[in-house]
TrEMBL record:
It comes from Mycolicibacterium fluoranthenivorans. Its cofactor is pyridoxal 5'-phosphate. Catalyzes the anaerobic formation of alpha-ketobutyrate and ammonia from threonine in a two-step reaction. The first step involved a dehydration of threonine and a production of enamine intermediates (aminocrotonate), which tautomerizes to its imine form (iminobutyrate). Both intermediates are unstable and short-lived. The second step is the nonenzymatic hydrolysis of the enamine/imine intermediates to form 2-ketobutyrate and free ammonia. In the low water environment of the cell, the second step is accelerated by RidA. Its EC number is 4.3.1.19. Keywords: Lyase, Pyridoxal phosphate. GO terms for molecular function: L-serine ammonia-lyase activity; threonine deaminase activity. GO terms for biological process: isoleucine biosynthetic process; L-serine catabolic process; L-threonine catabolic process. This is threonine ammonia-lyase. Belongs to the serine/threonine dehydratase family. InterPro entries: Ser/Thr_Dehydratase, TrpB-like_PALP, TrpB-like_PALP_sf. Pfam families: PALP (PF00291). It catalyses: L-threonine = 2-oxobutanoate + NH4(+). PANTHER family: L-THREONINE DEHYDRATASE CATABOLIC TDCB, THREONINE DEHYDRATASE, MITOCHONDRIAL-RELATED. Residues 22-304 form the Tryptophan synthase beta chain-like PALP domain.
Length: 327
């Protein structure tokens, strides 16, 4: 088996130069209500133009395609945020985009993807990669995968560069994990620039394939039906060989959280930080609340804010919401 070539700090720095002026350089927002022994900082990637971090990787990857090839358009598959990111990147470069999305994708993400001018192709659960491959074969467009590509990983890694620049004494960074591109990129950058920092991936208990894989020393697969049980719809993918190799190198561990803890974290971010988070974006805060961490400055990645309004209403105003607001 060929060992994957890992993304380097220079790859990430090159991506940062490429993305300069095209993305939001998100701030580190101090959360005064955090644990004094572990001062809390929020990295709100929900402030990006498409409402999630995915725009970094998509713009970097599409920008790296040779212009003569790029003119034939791009294809992507995604449960939502990568879909919007590739649609936005395609519009930025003036090319066509066909985006394959599972039928259960929240409607708000489908609508936003179409709003950027992309053609959305809906498919059954577990079929998106197959459908995307058929589109590439038929159209000659270039596939931009959601995480299994070095240019995508490097683009997401620019978040890590910003953390290291803004908080060089960071002790802990908590990153949502699904396909693993975000944690791979952030972990590579932060470990290179802040070698004492601990990088923790975070997963829902109902989709904890990465936690199981790292413990076993190899990738572990979970049935799609099992992973689809979590409310965190953006965290239902599994790492590729490429991202798993990165995660083995950069993660200190993977922390898991329950569905109730995810909901509570969405409420906490809304009422205490005044930040809207989708469930997938709130898992890092849920882990900060649940798990003991080494002392020192701690950064959580709020990876996205594209939540269905009806779901957000249900989360914010359930019976426990009032209790959350009092503490």
């Amino acid at each position: 088996m060929t060992t994957p070539t890992l993304v380097t700090l220079e790859d990430i720095r090159a991506a940062a130069r490429r993305l300069h002026g095209g993305i939001v350089r998100t701030p580190l927002v101090p959360a005064q209500w955090g644990d004094p022994a572990r001062p809390l900082w929020i990295k709100p990637e929900s402030l990006q133009v498409i409402g999630a971090f995915k725009v970094r990787g998509a713009l970097n990857a599409v920008g790296r395609i040779d212009e003569s090839v790029r003119s034939r358009g791009v294809v992507a598959y995604s449960s939502g945020n990568h879909a919007q990111a590739v649609a936005y990147a395609a519009a930025t470069f003036g090319i066509t985009a066909q985006i394959v999305m599972p039928r259960e994708t929240p409607d708000i993400k489908v609508r936003k993807t179409r709003a950027y001018g992309a053609e959305v192709v809906l498919c059954d659960a577990g079929q998106r990669e197959t459908v995307a491959a058929e589109l590439v074969e038929r159209t000659g467009a270039t596939l931009v995968p959601p995480f299994d590509h070095p240019d995508v990983i490097a683009g997401q890694g620019t978040i890590g560069l910003e953390i290291a620049e803004d908080l060089p004494d960071v002790a802990n960074v908590l990153v949502p994990v699904s396909g693993g591109g975000l944690a791979s990129g952030i972990g590579t950058a932060v470990k290179a620039l802040c070698p004492r920092a601990q990088i923790f991936g975070v997963e829902p208990e109902l989709a904890a394939d990465t936690a199981a894989g790292l413990q076993a020393g190899h990738r572990v697969s979970m049935p799609v039906a099992d992973r689809n049980r979590t409310i965190a719809d953006g965290l239902r993918s599994e790492p590729s060989a490429l991202t798993f190799a990165h995660l083995q190198q950069v993660l200190s561990g993977v922390l898991t959280v329950t569905e109730d803890e995810i909901r509570s974290a969405v409420r906490e971010l809304t009422f205490k930080a005044q930040l809207v988070s989708e469930p997938s974006g709130a898992v890092a805060l849920a882990a900060y609340r649940r798990h003991p961490l080494p002392p020192g400055p701690t950064v959580i990645i709020l990876s996205g804010g594209n939540v269905e309004p009806a779901l957000l209403r249900d989360i914010l105003f359930d019976q426990s919401a009032a209790e959350d607001q009092r503490h």
